[in-house]
């Protein structure tokens, strides 16, 4: 049976237009002037009067079932993709991990086994290269050509686990650049951070907020600049993940002004949360907000700067870096030693709503909201036009959004597998009314209709925005 979403306002990266959306099977088949769609017993009509109709969200930075020390991120592929669907995100891209001494192919095979048959929405993988050597460089080419994996993550942080030195980074960038693939960079100066952590613990400074003090702005700024220079030498596209410091984004802005293929990503936590208000909560409560890069001081203007850079496209994407850990038995591993607190904040369910508040406050436009959360990530990571846009031939991943709703966020209403909420008590305007994944309704009017196994693995093409 065909479906017609009628009387809504379709939001795309170029603006808002009153249109009806016709769906047949898993695809959009037409966008029609209001009132010009088919009707009758063979067409299901969904009335979207007064609602926005937009593409399903594309979150290209999540960590589900991620091992971290003695524990795992609290959301599995099943629970995490279900929460994503509740929040209007219909595509996620997670990571296959290679650590020092491991084979790339083994890590990828393990991730496929964990995700297959468990995801409620469509999913893909980036490949982490944590041990740059001749074998892993050869594997990069195989993944691009045969596995639909066209992006690779490198780390300037976490020595002994994922860290790559400048020479290793350059070699990996050269391979990616020759084949048109994207390098994603965790840009923090890991060896210097380890020195600061050791010094803080030696002084007896063990509280959660010290995590941010040992990862200062300067070490994010320096690493971002260094990664841009290495990418320039290698002629490689660069995507800097989870940017939290305005000074670091200035380096991205400068590279973009010079015409480089450099892109920045930020996350809801860096737009809404801060060192003073959250990480410095009394006792151990601040542990809920430990993530890397860390939350920054609101007094230094970082949050305002990030919103400004979203407007100017110096930040191109908002993802979540969803890496949730419960306080009980997980964050508590770091009592008495902030360096042992599992790093991560859960946001996968709230990204679309939190960014919409930028529209409400006049920080960004409706079109920019959709571009940041849907279209730009799809284009950058080889999913467009199948994902990220409402147009004939695209997957029928659709969100009907009601701007008149009002909701208070908190642990009692979310569907993430967490015993706390980083956004507890935040009042939001607007809310999800309906979510479709490939033409199937997965959320409607506060009820979940999805199922694990509906989500399919996505082989991705090369980015279509590179010059």
List the helices and strands and how they pair.
Elements (H helix, E strand, L loop, with lengths): L1 E11 L2 E10 L2 E6 L10 E5 L4 E4 L1 E3 L7 E2 L2 E2 L4 H10 L2 E8 L7 H12 L6 E7 L5 H14 L3 E5 L10 H13 L3 E5 L3 H13 L7 H4 L3 H18 L3 E3 L5 H12 L4 E5 L1 H5 L2 H5 L22 H11 L4 E2 L32 H10 L5 H15 L17 E11 L18 E11 L2 E5 L2 E2 L19
Parallel strand pairs: 1-4, 1-5, 6-9, 9-10, 10-11, 11-12, 12-13, 13-14, 14-15
Antiparallel strand pairs: 1-2, 2-3, 5-16, 7-8, 16-17, 17-18, 18-19
Helix pairs in contact: 4-7, 7-8, 8-11
Write up this protein.
This protein has 467 residues and is an alpha/beta fold. The protein has two domains: 2-54 and 392-448, Urease, subunit C, domain 1, CATH 2.30.40; 57-380, TIM Barrel, CATH 3.20.20. Helix content is 30%, strand content 23%. It has 13 helices and 19 strands. Strands 1, 2, 3, 4, 5, 16, 17, 18 and 19 form a nine-stranded mixed beta sheet that branches. The chain has an eight-stranded parallel beta sheet with strand order 6-9-10-11-12-13-14-15. It has a two-stranded antiparallel sheet with strand order 7-8. The mean pLDDT is 97.
């Amino acid at each position: 049976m065909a479906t017609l979403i009628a009387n809504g306002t379709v939001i795309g990266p170029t603006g808002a237009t009153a249109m009806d959306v016709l769906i047949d099977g898993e695809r959009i088949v037409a966008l029609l002037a209001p009132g010009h769609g088919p009707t009758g017993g063979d067409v299901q009509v969904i009335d979207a009067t007064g609602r926005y109709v937009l593409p399903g969200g594309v979150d290209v930075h999540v960590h589900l079932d991620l091992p971290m020390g003695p524990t795992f991120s609290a959301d599995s592929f099943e629970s995490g993709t279900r929460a994503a669907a509740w929040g209007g995100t219909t595509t996620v891209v997670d990571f296959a991990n290679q650590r020092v001494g491991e084979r790339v192919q083994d890590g990828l095979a393990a991730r496929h086994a964990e995700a297959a048959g468990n995801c409620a929405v469509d999913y893909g993988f980036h490949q982490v290269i944590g041990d740059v050597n001749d074998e892993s460089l050869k594997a990069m080419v195989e993944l691009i050509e045969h596995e639909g994996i066209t992006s690779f993550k490198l780390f300037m942080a976490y020595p002994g686990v994922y860290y790559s030195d400048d020479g290793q980074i350059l070699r990996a960038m050269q391979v990616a650049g020759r084949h048109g693939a994207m390098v994603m960079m965790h840009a923090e100066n890991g060896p210097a951070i380890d020195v600061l952590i050791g010094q803080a613990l030696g002084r007896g400074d063990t509280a959660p907020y010290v995590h941010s003090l040992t990862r200062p702005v300067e070490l994010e700024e320096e690493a971002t600049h260094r990664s841009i220079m290495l990418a320039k030498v290698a002629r490689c596209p660069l995507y800097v993940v989870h940017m939290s410091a305005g000074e670091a984004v200035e380096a991205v802005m400068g590279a973009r002004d010079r015409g480089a293929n450099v892109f920045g990503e930020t996350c809801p936590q860096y737009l809404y949360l801060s060192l003073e208000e959250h990480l410095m909560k009394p006792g151990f409560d601040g542990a809920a907000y430990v993530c890397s890069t860390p939350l920054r001081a609101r007094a230094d203007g970082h949050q305002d700067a990030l919103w400004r850079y979203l407007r100017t496209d110096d930040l191109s994407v908002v993802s979540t870096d969803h890496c949730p850990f419960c306080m009980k038995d997980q964050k508590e591993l770091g009592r008495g030693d902030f360096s042992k607190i599992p790093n991560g904040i859960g946001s996968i369910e709230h990204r679309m709503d939190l960014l919409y508040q930028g529209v409400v406050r006049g920080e960004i436009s409706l079109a920019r909201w959709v571009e940041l959360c849907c279209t730009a990530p799809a284009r950058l990571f080889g999913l467009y036009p199948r994902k990220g846009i409402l147009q004939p031939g695209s997957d029928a991943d659709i969100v009907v959004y009601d701007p008149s709703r009002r909701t208070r966020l908190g642990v009692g209403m979310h569907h993430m597998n967490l015993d706390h909420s980083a956004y507890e008590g935040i009042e939001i305007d607007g809310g999800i009314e309906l979510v479709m994944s490939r033409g199937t309704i997965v959320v409607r009017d506060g009820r979940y209709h999805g199922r694990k196994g509906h989500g399919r693995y996505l082989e991705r093409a090369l980015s279509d925005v590179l010059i």
